[in-house]
Q: What sequence folds into this?
């Protein structure tokens, strides 16, 4: 899960990484009361999970005379379509230089990897494309609790010691917080020292419980509903809904849709031994996502009985067309029930997906 800037900065601060003094505000809060704590010049930053936020107008400069107006502007201006519920007002740093640092896991090397560039800031993606040599990288043993000094020097070249110190602290955050990604862009030097001007932290979802982070805070209504029923459910954005039992079957269905150039809207794994009731909830849930015009139900009847599945689909009675492929226990009874109610049941997964694509088109 990706933390917002102010949350990441809080965790950075705990590890001794210097971040600007700041004030987190929601709309209608008395910003001016706190302005003298932050100094005359401030930066007003939308707290939204949007890449390229600064370039999209989510980071604005202000001073005491217009900070309220600036914050209000942000509250009323979605950034790349994402509404802004909170704004972080920070003392404005007198930036001398912007660096880029990012820590992740290199999966093929099975080691932590640190990327560094001494040209940080909002243009880093352009730099990565146009001048990839400007971004240096090191990998090292995950058994080490600190980044080896000689590698850190190799990575950073000629920079103030505070920059290296901060990278080491960032690595500690990365380890302690079970992060998949810890990034500072820009990491800046100022006359007052080195600061993390921005903060990005993605926590491994499998570690949220032990990190004490609420798991479902960003879930949509449908995702909450899925969690309630114990379904694995993911939204993708196309027009074809997918229901399977077991991760393998569900994924192959998605692969096949992709193969035929279709676009899945979402997918739901009902798990083992789904009865009529569960199937009905699954079908209704997948159908309730806006944009879904057809649903592929691809099930293997083992403990799951095909006649139960058929009854669930019939009971769900949803608007999108439901195309079924299932095989196994009580298959014939399932087929009979579906046919009786005008549903199409196909012999192969391939045929089911092709038919769904035709319906979607
Ligand atoms: P992002 O676009 O979401 O990555 O937002 P950042 O927090 O990285 O801010 C974007 C850019 O705004 C930075 O690269 C800086 O150039 C600038 N910026 C952010 N904070 C400050 C600050 O305190 N002082 C100054 N002078 N510039 C800042
Ligand atoms: Mn940034």
A:
């Amino acid at each position: 899960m990706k933390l917002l800037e102010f949350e990441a900065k809080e965790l950075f601060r705990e590890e001794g990484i210097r971040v600007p003094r700041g004030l987190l505000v929601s709309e209608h809060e008395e910003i001016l009361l706190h302005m003298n704590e932050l100094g005359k010049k401030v930066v007003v930053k939308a707290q939204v999970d949007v890449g390229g936020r600064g370039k999209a107008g989510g980071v604005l400069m202000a001073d005491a005379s217009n900070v309220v107006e600036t914050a209000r502007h942000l509250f009323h201006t979605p950034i790349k379509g994402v509404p802004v519920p909170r704004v972080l007002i920070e003392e404005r740093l007198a930036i001398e230089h912007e660096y880029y640092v990012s820590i992740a896991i290199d999966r093929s090397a099975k080691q932590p990897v640190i990327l560094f560039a001494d040209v940080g800031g909002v243009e880093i993606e352009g730099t990565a494309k146009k001048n990839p040599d400007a971004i240096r990288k090191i990998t090292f043993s995950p058994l080490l609790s600190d980044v080896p000094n000689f590698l850190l020097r190799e990575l950073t070249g000629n920079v103030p010691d505070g920059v290296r110190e901060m990278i080491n602290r960032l690595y500690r955050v990365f380890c302690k917080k079970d992060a998949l990604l810890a990034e500072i862009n820009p990491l800046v030097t100022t006359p007052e020292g080195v600061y993390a001007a921005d903060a990005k932290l993605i926590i491994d979802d499998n570690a949220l419980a032990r990190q004490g982070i609420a798991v479902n805070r960003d879930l949509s209504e449908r995702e909450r509903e899925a969690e309630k029923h114990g379904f694995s459910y993911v939204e993708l954005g196309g027009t074809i809904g997918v229901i399977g039992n077991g991760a393998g079957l569900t994924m192959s269905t998605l692969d096949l849709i992709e193969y035929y150039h279709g676009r899945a809207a979402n997918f739901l794994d009902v798990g083992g031994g789904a009865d009529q009731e569960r199937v009905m909830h699954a079908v209704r849930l997948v159908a309730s996502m806006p944009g879904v015009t057809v649903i592929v139900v691809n099930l293997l009847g083992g403990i799951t009985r095909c006649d139960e599945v058929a009854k669930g689909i019939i009971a769900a009675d949803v608007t999108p067309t439901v195309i079924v492929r299932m095989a196994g226990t009580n298959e014939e009874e399932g087929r009979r029930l579906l046919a009786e109610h005008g549903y199409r049941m196909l012999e192969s997964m391939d045929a089911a997906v092709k038919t769904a694509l035709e319906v979607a088109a």
User: Anything to note?
Assistant: Residues 97-207 form a domain with the D-amino Acid Aminotransferase; Chain A, domain 1 fold (CATH 3.30.470.20). The first strand starts at residue 22 and ends at 26. The pocket of guanosine-5'-diphosphate (ligand 1) is lined by residues 20, 43, 45, 52-54, 59, 92-93, 95, 98, 121-122, 185-186, 197-198 (CB under 6 Å). The mean pLDDT is 94.
